[in-house]
Structures are given as C-alpha cells and as structure tokens.
Design brief:
By secondary structure, the chain is of the alpha+beta class. It is built from three helices and five strands. A hairpin with a 2-residue loop joins strand 4 and strand 5.
Length: about 120
Amino acid sequence: MTARYTEALDRLSRVSGVAGALVVEARAGLPVAVDVASGVDSGAVAALAAAMYRGAQRAAETGGYEGVHTLQLEATAGHVVVAGAGEMLVIAVAERDAQLGLVRLETQRAAESLR
C-alpha cells in the first residue's frame, strides 16, 4: 500500500461513524488499500460499490451530464459514499447515524488527494 493511499484512508477512517475506508480500482472493483472494521466484507463492498459507480457514470453520460463525482447509497443499516479518483475510487462505509456531510467531504478530499 502506498503512502498516498494510507494517508487518504487514515484521514477518512478517523471520521466518527466511518466503519470502513477503501481505495478500489474502478474498473475491476478490486480493493487496493483497505481499512475496515471487523464484520465489513471489504471485497464485497469494493465490487458492489465500483459496479454501482460505473452504472451511475454510464447513466450520467447517457443523460448528457459530464460524469459522476460522488455517489451516495443510503440503506437501512448505514451508508456507502463513493468518490472518483481517476482510475481509483475512494469508498467510505458509514454507520446509519454518521454525520453524512462530514463523511462526504472527507471522502471527496481523499479522492482529490489521489488524483
């Protein structure tokens, strides 16, 4: 794991309510760097979040938008926030009561640091 990935994940993992932070290769959906709590299946999160992001990217382009910067999934048990970083994605898995504004901001900052 490179120092850039480590720094991005460390900062994101320190946000209250974040149960996992990942850097993922966007096309393959494979985790490159992972910092997750026990019980978080990093491989499944990486693959599903990358597929979701790619689908949203295609939908945005089809609709005439230039692309997706950040994608957020809200589920019963929590949230998944995905931000694009070139060929990589930064993913945050957050608890249901996490401060989503801060989670989104730090996910975007982590992605910007990897571009």
